[in-house]
Amino acid sequence: MEWTFRSDRPIYAQLVEQMTQAILSGTFAPGERLPAVRELATQAGVNPNTMQRAMAELEQQGLIYAQRTNGRFVTGDTTAIGSVRDRVARQRVSSFAADMGRLGYHKEQVLQLLREEEVF
Amino acid sequence: MALLECRQLTKNYGGVLALDRVDLTVEAGRIVGLLGPNGSGKTTLIKIANGLLVPTSGTLTIAGMAPGPDTKAIVSYLPERTYLSDWMNVVQLLDFFCDFYPDFDRSTAEHMLTALEISPRLRIKQMSKGTREKVQLILVMSRKARLYLLDEPIGGVDPATRDYIIRTILTNYNEQASVVISTHLIADVENVLDDVIFINKGRVALQSSVDQIREEKGCSVDELFREVFRYAE
Asked: In whole angstroms, what separates CA A29 from the centre of its chain?
């Protein structure tokens, strides 16, 4: 996967976001074993301690779990993944709606644009 | 115990104050950037840690010991200028490191050299600047040391080589070891650093973790560096 970092926020927070995105999009499938911290850190070009911190955060959120001596896995609980997906979707819709509001659009106009959008 | 510790470390070169009462600590398991403009004292600090210079006053200890044979056994040092004889070829360099350092892992070094398609018969004088820097870093990182002191490991090489060097550092240090990287090319290394030490005119201007800087200042270490040293001038 591609990793990109912005300069204004802690790197571990950006790792959490990008790992979350990879799990939601299925780059890392439910139940899949994740590469070792050291390997992920090298791929992303970041410090292993920073990657470790991001992993701890993802564990706390329940998106991944550690199995003693066996590495880390994406949760097999698709309901948990679904609820994180919902939360992320809502955040993005809110920020999109705020953007459109700043452009002077009303809800009906935005809905119309969405209906015309060809991605869906 | 701290791996590297300076207490009121001062170095005076006949009236020129290169280090001025420096206090700093590097714990085990960290990658630390020693960052400062040219002439700020980075190389002087690293040379004292390697026993190449003697402090005017104050102390520097490595795992509690003053620099000497015992610390050289656990410190792997990449100097800013090479000390290797340029008639030596790759095999002779490997022999040389095996003779000098019991913790040198020859097969790790050979593996990396093969991956880079560097011929064992190539002499240092036949190498390009980038190749020479890669070979030296491979030698230094193939020791199973506790402290790696890298003085400007990425100066004067192209961006692809820079990436290779940074990845080599990341994959080769072990979790109990620490790496100190001195550089002024901050943007290139900041993603791999745990902590940074800003040094200016022989004094420590700041010691902090990278994430803390980003969290508190909302900017990268590179941006902060430009700001701090603009005001310092």
From this structure: 13
The number of CA neighbours under 13 Å toward the Cβ of B93 is 28
- B115 at the A interface (CB within 8 A)? no
pTM metric for this prediction = 0.84
Asked if the structure places residue A4 within a domain, the reply is no
CATH number of the domain that residue A30 is part of: 1.10.10.10
Whole-number Å distance between alpha carbons of B40 and B204 = 10
- Residues in chain A closer than 8 A to B194 (CB atoms): 47, 49-50
Give the distance from residue A12's alpha carbon to the nearest chain B alpha carbon, in angstroms. 8
| pLDDT one-digit tens code per residue, A35-57 | 999 899 988 989 999 999 999 99
Nearest one of B149, B138, B139, B222 to B187, comparing CA atoms:
B222
Q: Identify whether residues A17 and A64 lie together within a single domain.
A: yes
Mutate to test the interface with A, among B30, B170, B225 (most CBs of A within 10 A): B170
Chain B contact probe: residue of A47, A53, A57 with most B CBs at under 10 A: A47
Residues 58-117 of A with CB under 8 A from B: none
The DSSP symbol for B65 reads: B
A44 neighbourhood in chain B, CB within 8 Å: 191
To which H or E segment does residue B131 belong? helix B129-141
Round to whole Å and give the CA distance between A52 and A36.
10
Q: Which amino acid is at B178?
A: S
Considering the domain B4-232 in this protein, what is its CATH number? 3.40.50.300
A16 three-state secondary structure: helix
A37 at interface of B, judged by CB pairs closer than 8 A: no
Residue B221 CA to residue B192 CA, distance in Å, equals: 12
ipTM over 0.90: no
